Amino acid sequence: MNKKKVRISVLLALISSCVFAQEKEIIASQQELDEVVVSDSKFALAKEKSGKVITNITAKELLNRPGQSVATILNTIAGIEINGNQSAAGKNLGYYIRGGKNSQVLILIDGIPVNDASGISMEYDLRLLPVEQVESIEIMKGAASTLYGSGAATGLINIKLKKSGKKSLSGNAYFNVGTNTTATQQNQKAADFNQGFSINGRTTKLSYFTALNSTETNGISQIAPPNPNVNYEEDPFSRLNYMAKVGYSVSDKMTLDFFGNYDQIKNDYDGGFDNTGTSDTNLNKTSSKQFRFGFSPKFKYNKGEFIINSSLNKLVRSYDELDTYSNSVGFSQYESRSVNVDGFNKYQISDSFYLVSGLQYQFHDANSVTPYGNITKENTKFNMIDPYVTGVYTSSLGFNLNVGARWNSHSAYGNQLVYNVNPSFDFQTLPFKIISSYSTAFVTPSLYQLYSPYGNSSLTPEKNSTAELGFETQLGNNNIRWNLVGFYREQTNFIGFYFNPVTDASNYVNINGLNKAKGIETEIQFVLSNQLKWNSNYTFTQVDEALDRLIPKHKLNSSLDYKVSDRLFWNVSYQYIDARKDAFFDGNTYATTQVNLGSYQLVNSLARYEIIKNRCSVFGSAQNIFNADFIENLGYSTLGRNFKFGITLNW
Question: Rounded to two decimals, what is the model's pTM?
């Protein structure tokens, strides 16, 4: 579908609908539900019964943060650093939770793990996902391999996509336009467009949700020019997303849910930075195409519930890349398939104790064609079969306990046992809860690390263990909410890339030794009035030298929400990122050189106004208001002062 046609059609629909929409305000009276979390046990659990500090970004909070990406929103959460969210739209993202790296952070969509099995770290690319299709996000930090398997070593991010509402037919459409420029080369032209729509409905038995999103971004080069007088070519980014969900209620006890996604991103990119110059070029192009299909039946019975989450994920990445040595463009393609089937059951043994037991099967294969060698899926595959069990005890006296274990059976390297012990105590006479946990986790070597030309089939999993201790409290008639958690993590069998100068060969190896990370995370919320709310969080992270790259020791987020009226919402936010370490390839010595990146501060603001209550709204935002010139990744462009405007219609 032509993206410009999508943009124009969405805009016309929005304008006409807002003009002729019925001006009668529709006020839905909904009963406020107690806050629950899911990640802690895979089933809904009252938050006060959980032994973890779990952050839930609600649908209302997402509604009041229009125009921001999933990565940008996650980057404001305590303990999380999403590197690359302030760079050009096509820049790769780095996920760092509690000093961990991409492979140690597990991303779920609707409770199902998502991966790129052909990638070095097998991580999911958040650039594929438009925030407009997201209903809510739940983040749980710490080792979580007992319930979720490989990759959940430092935390997991569970993204819940939107689904049908209660009406037989309803929908949504939006159009956003903004600038996209750096601090040193300000150009306030329209260069960032995002538009889409969704249609959904529900009958007695059937529910459905369909959505389309289209994004086009231009305006800046991925590589930063050496000075403002040098102009590099722009590196455009585009994204196209189709999503469909269908649900069928067989009975009051059994439901069948199906989903399908097609996601595509295309962008130009530049070569990596080194001290011999930059690699600005208009010849490098890449695309990623993702196909996801799944089926999730749910069955409730007298004392429990049984769920199967299953999915097939196919991803194809291709690159046209300039080889500066031969001065020719080479073609590379990486293709992967991932199958995930997770069946788990909750059985309520008593009012205070229930048991979660499950069996998870995963299969991954990949093949690639590159100028430097090929790998075939017949030789590049593995599977995992993991039985697991977790017991959840919630006492009426305030003591809660979550204990579990998982046995991982891997076709390439054998078996792995992980477990968790998670006690907490809620002082019911006081608004105070103590939380603690000790959890182990593992990270499997990726297919690339095992079977690529640089692979090592004798690799073993990285092993992690995490201990945490903290508290949650509510003060001043619940007007003040405060939590603080300290953590300590150890990891062994770290998988690194090793270059042997004697043989001039490179491959992946398990690096001997113990690496440690420790830190403190705290969040505080002040409800100053019915209209005014102030949220802040602070993160302190200290890691061993082997882990110390692009991880700020200190990070602060602070945000003030002001509900000016029933229709007008205003927010101003502040972010401080401490100094970090980065590295680059030295073209003169053929060695990697480490450098220090300075700290930076960002101030952002946005306003959202409902023209027609619950029907038509507009927003305007300003990012990096003071036009701070900073470095997120060495040699790469970062965003300066930018503005965005948008309109949304619900019907």
Answer: 0.92
